[in-house]
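TL;DR need structure tokens for one chain.
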Amino acid sequence: MTYQTITTDTQDNILTLTLNRPDRLNAFTNQMKDEMIAAFDAADADDEVRAIIVTGAGRGFCAGADLDDPEAFTSARLDPRSTDPAIWDDPVNRDSGGELALRIFNCLKPVIAAVNGPAVGVGATMQLPMDIRIASETARFGFVFARRGIVPEAASTWFLPRVVGMSQALEWCYTGRVFDAAEALQGGLIRSVHAPDDLLPAARALAREIAENTAPVSIALMRQMMWRMAGAEHPMAAHRVDSRAIAARGAMADTAEGVASFREKRAPVFPDRVSRDLPGFFPWWTEPGWLDEEDKT
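>> reply
TL;DR here they are.
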């Protein structure tokens, strides 16, 4: 697929997705949203992709929504008093940042954000469903919505408190201030801070550690287990899924290879593939009553 607002490059089983509107500090548009979703779809379907890095071209990561995009706030034309769920479930009316965040949430591959410069508004919130965030010393972050007279989007009121805690999430959203990488590190938003020239090498080193040493089906399951259990009401939900996943994976070829490679002191060559070998109960969260009240013991 030919993209206009992003670029993609796959090397050593790592897909690098680069936001590519450097003249606009990679400001977010509906076209960028559609292209990023398409790139994540392609990555999930490609067994050669074992990890994904998201970064920005030029000196910015993403400067937020492009206010010159005529579709930037399409839902503002709707009556917010409407209680019909079908209206807010209709893709035409949904928050575009939220569409992207939910697609990243559903991804089957680990996602690393390499934040190379300013990341405000949706540029900050799109990172939250990514798994690991690292930043350049030149990075800046801002949940600036209250200063624009709007509210956080991209499902960030669900993600941000889970990533950094409620108090920190509220402070950053209440003030709407733009803060530097050091504060992001202290607040738990990012894992580490790097010199600009060291940022992508650090992201690639982390991605390679995953790609070269782990079973992709295990990673796909683990990613969904971790994220979805973050919203579970009771640990029984995790216990049920853990038990099913352990039983399913234990019967597959990856487990035999993991044990054999450990005993033989060699790198593993895992044969199972995400495209064909996810267990039959996946996705378990779509099963009716998969956690009933009487099972919370």
